[in-house]
Design a protein that fits this description.
By secondary structure, the chain is mainly α. It has 3 helices and no strands. It is rod-shaped and about 135 Å long.
């Protein structure tokens, strides 16, 4: 009986040891690798790849992880591309505002200068029937000049929080 008990006890320890080896190789190690890969992916490392060890649930989880990694990488690249496009559009907007302001101010300053000179009678006495149209021209030019000035000030005073900056998206993937 003692010998049978020892054999059973040895068999039990052997089975437990064998179970530990199998669990370690097919469950514990793949899950540790998956956990490490997940942490690297969370830090923006999209190149991490896991070996597909089996077709069981762990293998399916590994395959799903790889699909998620591929999709995240594609999304990240798309966001980076859109970010670059937005930066270019922002630059073009600033350039457009600067050019349009300059192109509008040049003739407006001429119109304002001439209409002010006419109203100040620097070119002689005005006919009464020209006084109102010249004042209308002057008032309209002043309003337009004010709008151009506001547009320029808007561009200059744009809050930094509204500016589009090149930001590493990986900093937000945590």
């Amino acid at each position: 009986i003692r010998e049978l008990e020892l054999t059973l006890l040895f068999s039990l320890f052997f089975m437990l040891f064998l179970n530990w080896i199998i669990q370690n190789k097919y469950i514990h190690q793949p899950l540790l690798l998956l956990n490490r890969a997940t942490k690297k992916l969370a830090k923006g490392d999209f190149e991490i790849k896991l070996p597909l060890v089996s077709d069981d649930e762990i293998g399916q989880l590994t395959s799903s992880f790889d699909t998620m990694r591929f999709d995240l990488k594609a999304s990240y690249q798309s966001i980076e591309k859109k970010n670059q496009q937005l930066l270019e559009l922002d630059r073009k907007k600033d350039e457009f505002i600067a050019k349009i302001s300059h192109e509008l101010n040049t003739p407006l300053n001429g119109i304002l200068g001439l209409s002010n000179a006419l109203m100040d009678r620097q070119y002689g006495q005005l006919d009464n029937n020209l006084q109102v149209p010249i004042e209308t021209i002057n008032n309209s030019a002043n309003r337009l000049h004010s709008l151009v000035k506001q547009l320029t000030l808007f561009k200059q005073q744009e809050p930094q929080s509204n500016r589009i900056d090149n930001v590493a998206i990986s900093a937000f993937i945590k």
